[in-house]
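Protein in question reproduced for absentees:

***
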Amino acid sequence: MVDRNKIYKGQVVEIMTCPFLLLSEKAMYWPEKKMLILSDPHLGKITHFRKAGIAVPLEAKNENWRNLNDLIVSQAPRSVYFLGDLFHSTYNDEWQELEEFMSVFDNIEFHLVLGNHDILEEKVYQNSRLKVCEQSIQDQFIFTHHPLKEPQGELFNFCGHIHPSILLSGKGRQRIKLPCFYFYDQQLILPAFGVFTGTKNLELAKAQSIYGVAEGEILKIK
């Protein structure tokens, strides 16, 4: 159960009678399992772009690592699940940084549910600490990268890939786009964890509920 006396930086929600914590760092924590869940970090993307001569600020890369480190330290999980697109493209030095990063947390299991950008050679994954799978089922939950198009029985689907966001408009024609946790049928689409990632606006009307991420806060939008 969630410790109600502890100050969490997020929003407690109940999914299939289980409490989860939606975090303003664009990740989710499952207290019962001590499991940290995040999607689409796209590590290596910034290095990949910089090699191609695109002037992406190096600070964005450092921010990814800093956010991931702070999240693990603050939540103290037993396991970390990446719901795909952990690494953006072909091998570069940032993969070695990932290996070194995981070695610091040698008491934590790291799992990768493969995404469409996870295209490294199989031996790279085999030689790492990552436990890799196409999908994972934990109790009444199924973890995938792509959102499942059809329900899998009574299983609730946690997924990513879409990089969901919601566009809000004010009376004075103000507009703001927020990354969000998007609940739809038996499904939760997580926001992209990576700093240097785009987003896709999803429809407010189709969601069962939406929690936006804004300036270090979780906002219930619907």
